[in-house]
Design brief:
The strands form 4 sheets. A 5-stranded mixed sheet has the order 2-1-3-12-6. The chain is an alpha+beta fold. It has 19 helices and 12 strands. The radius of gyration is 22 Å and the shape is globular. Strand 1, helix 2 and strand 2 form a beta-alpha-beta unit.
């Protein structure tokens, strides 16, 4: 993300002075009323359900009202830095794991451990790995607003028509490529068996964890050039044998647009996505789609926060902001209002209530998949370090350099290691 000079200055003020309001009066105004400033990114639907949930909180606590701000993802962190450096900083804001560590290490986010320890903030109904994925340096600095899981989405209708078995949990990537080749051959090359996820940091991370390694080891990469070259070789084989689609299809999907994913456009039998994206993908095709875990041992996965709620360390109303988080996470009525827009409710009991209230079969399928696979997950790693956004971009560029033949797997891997470690060191 490139920041303008003005935003860099604002961010410096924010990060340098985030603690200066710690001694501000935490009490409400003289009449006992509190207006909490809440900020998030998202679309119209997210704004609608979030504001409805906050109105429910106000109905129960008439002295607490909300000043809400929301925008698209583009430029969100620029504006967050600007707002937080000013007099009208958000008390409660949305953040994701791209920036959680950075904001925590610079003391922008409030340490929520005292609230967790006292039971004021109840995280007992969250999967353990989901709760821990909001911790940086032992401090709870974010609470998952929703849970999400990487999932391979596949075309169930196509497989039934071809007489090909559905993919299974625990299959290896080598087995996936062989399975995909059968699909390509049975469709005379019209449909590739699998998308090429070599540019997908999620797929790489889970592949590494299945081998006892990590994407990161502190402020460095947790894998070697040899590891990455092996990953790229798997997918070069898939492309060379026709198991994966041509470069034009792969590059289009690398951009992340859900409507351009190969399983939705009919150009491949699978796509590597997030589980909560199934309903949107399903709307793009008449064929029935289904979910399975990414290849490899599911212990390599963990319950992940799609995004978090964090409290600004300088908030004058931190206690109220924490109570709002507890409400959004643990209240069943709030859960039903919020639905699955951000992902699945992080509270497993609320998730069941939400599931029972849903009429959409595809959305229910995402919840059923998540509930069935979560018990097989392993422990959560630390959230990504500062520089993760840059590393993700470098991983896409490196994978595409192999995909388009401009670099060998080894060359691309060595270049990535050098560039990524430099980005993490700054």
């Amino acid at each position: 993300m490139r920041l303008t000079i003005g935003v860099v200055t604002a961010l410096a003020v924010l990060l340098g002075g985030a603690a200066c309001r710690d001694d501000a009066d935490p009490a409400a105004s003289g009449d006992g009323k509190v207006e909490l400033n809440v900020y998030w990114w998202g679309g119209d639907k997210r704004a609608e359900v979030t504001e409805q949930a906050l109105k429910l909180y106000t109905q129960r606590h008439p002295d607490i009202t909300f000043k809400t701000h929301w925008q698209s993802n583009q430029g969100y962190y620029d504006n967050l830095a600007t707002q937080a450096a000013g007099p009208d900083a958000p008390d409660l804001f949305q953040i994701d794991d791209n920036y959680l560590t950075e904001y925590a290490e610079r003391n922008v986010t409030l340490d929520l451990n005292p609230y967790v320890d006292s039971g004021v903030l109840d995280l007992s109904k969250l999967p353990d790995s989901l709760a821990k994925y909001g911790q940086v340096g032992g401090r709870t600095v974010g609470v998952a607003s929703a849970e999400n899981t990487p999932a391979m989405v596949y075309n169930k209708t196509l497989l039934q028509r071809l007489g090909v078995a559905e993919p299974k949990i625990g299959m290896s990537y080598v087995e996936l490529v062989a399975w995909a080749r059968d699909i390509t051959e049975r469709t005379d090359g019209k449909v590739a068996g699998t998308m090429d996820p070599s540019a997908d940091y999620k797929a790489l991370w889970l592949w590494l964890r299945a081998q006892g390694k990590e994407l990161y080891a502190g402020r460095e990469l947790g894998f070697t050039a040899s590891d990455l070259a092996t990953w790229y070789e798997i997918w070069k084989t898939a492309r060379d044998t026709g198991s994966a689609p041509p470069l034009s299809v792969i590059k289009e999907a690398n951009g992340g647009d859900v409507t351009k994913q190969a399983v939705a456009t009919g150009k491949a039998a699978t796509s590597f996505m997030w589980s909560n994206q199934l309903p949107e993908l399903q709307r793009a095709t008449k064929d029935q789609l289904a979910l399975v875990a990414y290849p490899g041992n599911p212990k390599g996965q963990w319950a992940r926060a799609s995004m978090y709620w964090s409290v600004f360390r300088g908030s004058r109303h931190a206690d109220v902001a924490v109570d709002v988080i507890d409400f959004l996470v643990n209240d069943a009525e709030a859960g039903k209002i919020l639905g699955t827009e951000r992902g699945l409710s992080p509270n497993t009991e609320v998730r069941k209530v939400v599931s029972q209230s849903l009429s959409d079969a595809t959305t229910r399928a995402t919840i059923e998949f998540e509930d069935s696979i979560t018990p097989r997950f392993g422990p959560a790693p630390a959230p990504p370090p500062k520089g993760h956004v840059k590393v993700r971009a470098l991983l896409v560029a490196a994978a595409e350099s192999v995909q388009n033949g401009k670099a060998t797997p080894r060359q691309a891997a060595e270049d990535l290691i050098r560039q990524a470690n430099a980005a993490l060191a700054t």
